[in-house]
Design a protein that fits this description.
By secondary structure, the chain is mainly β. It has 2 domains: 131 residues, Sandwich (Jelly Rolls), CATH 2.60.120; 161 residues. Helix content is 9%, strand content 51%. It has 4 helices and 21 strands. The protein has an 8-stranded mixed beta sheet. Strands 1-3-8-5-6 form a 5-stranded mixed beta sheet. It has a 4-stranded antiparallel beta sheet with strand order 2-9-4-7, with no helix packed on it. The longest helix has 15 residues. It is globular. The N terminus is likely disordered.
Length: 306
């Protein structure tokens, strides 16, 4: 089956599987006083009841949604007003979204129970955070710094300067052979750092995503593996240009996130690669698996969805 047709069919089937009902949703209008910011909610839904969080955003702003439900049948979708497709479908893509929004307008984050759980009148308590960043950006007045821990290995990630140029410094702790700090040059600002074990080998990896301000600027992923908890080695992500189909309409503005056991790259799709091209209003998502390559670890493309 063609991967694009398969993705569309999967999205249709998934959307048809969640609860459809005449029960009115609980609607929460989300207002960011400065046009960007962060809000969190601790709420619940039951049966066919859904919850909708509505917000207004500008094209190019980054929306991050973290969803933590008590019920594994609870998910969220993201839709844009007037669009005939979902920007994000949680039952396919998981409980985390980070991405550059494709157009000015109103967006809805809908929380729901899948149809079978709704029919059983199940309850789902959940926490949800909605973070809207202004134009690719982080707060440059506060240097990025974060501690991450998984499987007994610590990673201290912080923005740094090397010879007067921006860099990220990664300080591991708990490795058996080499705990030397690593510095990596930055082409943009750090927007996110995550720790995971994508290949389930009992040894973690650290994933750092960056963004450069401005339309058409590519995002960057900086990633290292703990190599059987002995030392750090860099993980290679092939450039988009290696896959002409995935690169069609690509103009940067990437966002990266760990979703379950995969690394996901999302970006808005333009009419063409021409600098004057307009946005289509669609998002493309590329899903990667971590595999062993000839000279080290490689993120291998597994699935492309639009």
């Amino acid at each position: 089956m063609n991967i694009w047709l398969g993705a569309a069919l999967a999205t249709f089937l998934s959307l048809s599987a969640h609860a459809t009902t005449d029960v009115p949703p609980r609607i929460q209008q989300v207002v960011y006083k400065s046009g960007y910011g962060s809000v969190q909610f601790k709420q619940s839904i039951k049966g066919s009841k859904t919850a909708e969080y509505k917000l207004n955003a500008k094209a190019g702003q980054i929306l991050t949604v973290d969803f933590k439900p008590s019920n594994s049948s609870a998910y969220f979708n993201i839709t844009a007003k007037g669009a005939d497709y979902a920007l994000f479908n949680g039952s396919i893509m998981g409980n985390h979204f980070i991405g550059s929004l494709p157009a000015d307008g109103d967006y809805t984050v809908q929380v729901y129970l899948m149809r079978n759980a709704a029919r059983r009148n199940e309850l789902a308590n959940y926490e949800i955070s909605l973070i809207l960043a202004n134009g690719d950006a982080v707060d440059n007045k506060t240097p990025f710094e974060q501690n991450l821990t998984l499987q007994g290995i610590d990673f201290h990630v912080k923005a740094d300067q090397v010879d007067g140029k921006p860099a990220v410094r990664i300080e591991p702790k708990g490795l058996e052979i080499d705990n030397s700090a690593i510095t990596h040059a930055l082409n943009g600002s750090i927007v996110r750092a995550e720790v995971a074990d994508l290949n389930n080998d009992g040894s973690p990896e650290v994933y750092i995503s960056t963004r450069s301000p401005g339309r058409g600027m590519p995002g960057e992923l900086i990633a290292y593996s703990a190599n059987r908890k002995k030392s750090l080695s860099e993980i290679y992500l092939p450039p988009i240009s290696e896959n002409p189909k995935a690169a069609e309409g690509y103009q940067g503005e990437d966002a990266f996130a760990v979703v379950e056991n995969t690394l996901v790259q999302r970006f808005p799709v333009y009419d063409s690669a021409d600098a004057a091209a307009g946005r289509t209003g669609k998002m493309r998502q590329i899903q990667y698996k971590l595999v062993a390559g000839e000279a080290g670890w490689v993120l291998r493309e597994e699935k492309v969805e639009e």
